[in-house]
């Protein structure tokens, strides 16, 4: 078998709760070796034994210990220059030996001392039991992580002398360079994660306390697997508690129980171009509006584009009936959605959103009190120039002198014509152009300072229009910050964006409550956004890098008054581009990676279901709770999908039980249909031949 290496690169985050959980993750990656009589599991003492024990139990394979001792510097034993394995096999790092000037005599003394300790530990750990026979066996050699890999190299070389059929090295975390080096020695190399930068093995664990000899002895003394009944798989555990859904829509009673008294329900999507996610989310939202009294939909969309839709669904010529443009108010859902021109237009200009917007218009026509009609709003901040135009339009109609002041301030952006703001951000970040931070802050403050002047005019109409202008000014202020920081690092600009979404959501809640006749806490909002915004960042590897999400911020601010619901799929098709700004393609979604939450859900055999998260709902089924509380890979497809680099481009580690309150899985899904499909998208509906291209 040709040497291979399997793993995923990750940020410097703590991925595993403890060694036990790390072993469960490894077991999922080693599932192909399950129930094979030729497989044995060896754990490197001491820390590798708890990890190996979980692998052994999951695969129903015999477990033994493999003792390797580090050879340290004479004066600094914690600094390894090599390792010694059973049988006296020694592996040295020649560069370190030369660099520290270690003499042959010193090496011999250290090796003799560590060899005696190695023999003593083997006797203690096994309690007189002979070691497992490895000749002709497939040996899974497991440790809790690698740094330089010296101990593992010694172990592999020592094992080779006993002529096993294969040697498979499996570790939860290691540097990519070490994994690649060991892949040349082993028949297969499994690295569950390759943190970048790699600081130390312990940085991948929340609990990395030292493994004691007593624990090793206890784990090894347990009966070897084989005779005991088979352990229930993660998929089987989840299948027992899953609630079947029709087309991704849970039964009303289940929805009612999941939502409870929450005022904010965030519903995600694991791609921006999957029909079933959009359709199920729209149907759930209809139910929330009709049966739970929800009063607004807040989408991952730009404020001015979404507010144009809001005017139409509230009734042209009604409460928010100001002309949308010079030609008059919109007369159809398609016209109302035509403001979504910026890439990726298909996110909101698609048949599902069009049908929902039509329904919302009809629903609002039945509501007598204009203040109780359901609105459609945007949370995003990409509308730098369009929001400036909306602020100026509002002030031109209400206070011409204030409009002149705003034009003077916003003229700061005249040196760039990039409507998406990236050219401005680049110039401001690198000193090639002026920063407009002071001007946008001053304009927002000016608008807020004169709020009473603008609000004392036409009652509800004036209140809504001022709020719209106020949020456009806030979008300009935060968009300026976003584009200025996007060249400093992804986490910084991401946090600006999701913080803006959370601030806009809070402002919307306050506005809806102020205009409602039923008083405080009356506003209830459904949020539509990608899983990467809806999920709680603290339960993902990106949280270790300091990244925030809208879901996390909403949980921190509103506690039990919110619910986070994620979506997932195993395979199908998706609408996505090859690059930012490119045309929409109709693409094939590859089957989910081994060990991912999507694969676990797929293995339940259910076409569509909802699963409640035990950490959030109080419902505890221990096997299912453990399956959902384990760190796994999860897929995230945005507006770009790159199947060829899917692991690096679209997967990250998550703990589902803490990331969401519930998840809805739809095993096979189809691409979202744009309202304006291009020839490229239509052509993509023919069966694709990835990866051969033939």
UniProtKB/TrEMBL annotation:
Protein name per Swiss-Prot or TrEMBL: Phosphoribosyltransferase domain-containing protein
One GO process term, biological-process aspect: response to antibiotic
Residues covered by the Phosphoribosyltransferase domain: 30-179
SUPFAM superfamilies from the UniProt entry: EreA/ChaN-like (SSF159501), PRTase-like (SSF53271)
Signal peptide (UniProt feature, chain positions): none
């Amino acid at each position: 078998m040709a040497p291979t290496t399997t793993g995923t690169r990750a940020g410097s985050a703590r991925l595993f709760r403890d060694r036990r959980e790390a072993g469960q993750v490894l077991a999922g990656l080693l599932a192909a070796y399950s129930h094979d009589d030729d497989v044995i599991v060896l754990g490197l003492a001491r820390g590798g034994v708890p990890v190996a024990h979980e692998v052994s139990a999951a695969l129903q394979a015999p477990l033994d210990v493999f003792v390797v001792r580090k050879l340290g510097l004479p004066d600094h034993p914690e600094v390894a220059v090599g390792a010694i394995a059973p049988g006296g096999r020694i592996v040295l790092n020649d560069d370190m030996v030369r660099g520290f000037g270690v003499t042959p005599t010193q090496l011999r003394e250290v090796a003799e001392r560590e060899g005696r300790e190695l023999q003593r530990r083997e006797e203690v750990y096994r309690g007189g039991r002979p070691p497992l026979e490895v000749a002709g066996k497939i040996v899974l050699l497991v440790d809790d992580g690698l740094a330089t890999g010296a101990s593992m190299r010694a172990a592999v070389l020592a094992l080779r002398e006993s002529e096993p059929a294969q040697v498979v090295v499996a570790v939860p975390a290691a540097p990519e360079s070490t994994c690649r080096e060991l892949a040349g020695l082993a028949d297969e190399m499994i690295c569950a994660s390759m943190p970048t930068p790699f600081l130390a093995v312990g940085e991948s664990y929340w609990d990395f306390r030292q493994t004691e000899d007593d624990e090793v002895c206890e784990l090894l003394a347990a009966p070897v697997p084989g005779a005991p009944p088979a352990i229930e798989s993660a998929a089987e555990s989840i299948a027992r508690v899953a609630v079947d859904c029709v087309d991704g829509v849970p039964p009303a009673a289940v929805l009612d129980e999941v939502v409870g008294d929450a005022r904010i329900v965030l519903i995600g999507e694991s791609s921006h171009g999957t029909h079933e996610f959009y359709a199920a989310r729209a149907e759930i939202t209809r139910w929330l509006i009709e049966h739970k009294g929800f009063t607004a939909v807040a989408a991952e969309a730009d404020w001015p584009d979404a507010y144009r839709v809001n005017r139409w669904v509230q009734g042209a010529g009604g409460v928010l009936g100001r002309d949308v443009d010079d030609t008059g108010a919109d007369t159809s859902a398609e016209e109302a959605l035509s403001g979504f021109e910026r890439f990726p237009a298909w996110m909101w200009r698609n048949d599902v959103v069009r049908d929902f917007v039509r329904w919302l218009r009809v629903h609002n026509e039945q509501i007598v009190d204009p203040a109780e009609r359901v609105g459609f709003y945007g949370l995003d901040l990409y509308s730098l120039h369009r929001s400036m135009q909306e602020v100026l339009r509002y002030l031109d109609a209400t206070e011409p002198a204030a409009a002149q002041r705003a034009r003077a301030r916003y003229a700061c952006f005249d040196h760039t014509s990039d409507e998406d703001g990236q050219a401005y951000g680049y110039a401001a970040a690198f000193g090639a152009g002026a920063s407009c931070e002071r001007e946008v802050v001053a304009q927002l403050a000016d608008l807020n300072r004169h709020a009473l002047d603008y609000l004392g005019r036409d009652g509800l109409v004036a209140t809504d229009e001022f709020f719209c202008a106020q949020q456009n000014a806030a979008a300009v202020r935060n968009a300026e910050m976003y584009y200025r920081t996007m060249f400093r690092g992804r986490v910084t600009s991401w946090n600006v964006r999701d913080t803006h979404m959370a601030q806009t959501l809070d402002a919307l809640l306050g506005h809806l409550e102020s205009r409602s006749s039923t008083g405080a806490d009356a506003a209830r909002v459904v949020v539509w956004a990608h899983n990467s915004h809806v999920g709680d960042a603290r339960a993902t590897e990106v949280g270790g890098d300091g990244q925030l999400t809208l879901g996390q911020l909403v949980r921190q601010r509103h506690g039990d008054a919110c619910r986070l619901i994620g979506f997932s799929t195993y395979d199908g098709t998706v609408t996505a581009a090859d690059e930012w700004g490119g045309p929409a393609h109709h693409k094939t979604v590859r089957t989910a990676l081994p060990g991912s939450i999507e694969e676990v859900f797929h293995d339940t055999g259910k076409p569509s279901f909802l699963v409640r998260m035990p950490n959030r709902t109080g419902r505890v089924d221990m096997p299912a709770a453990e399956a959902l509380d384990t760190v796994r890979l999860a897929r995230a497809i945005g507006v770009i999908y790159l199947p060829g680099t899917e692991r690096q481009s679209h997967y990250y580690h998550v703990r589902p039980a803490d990331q969401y309150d519930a998840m809805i899985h739809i095993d096979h899904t189809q691409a979202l249909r744009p309202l304006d499909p291009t020839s490229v998208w239509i052509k993509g509906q023919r069966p694709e031949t990835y990866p051969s291209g033939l």
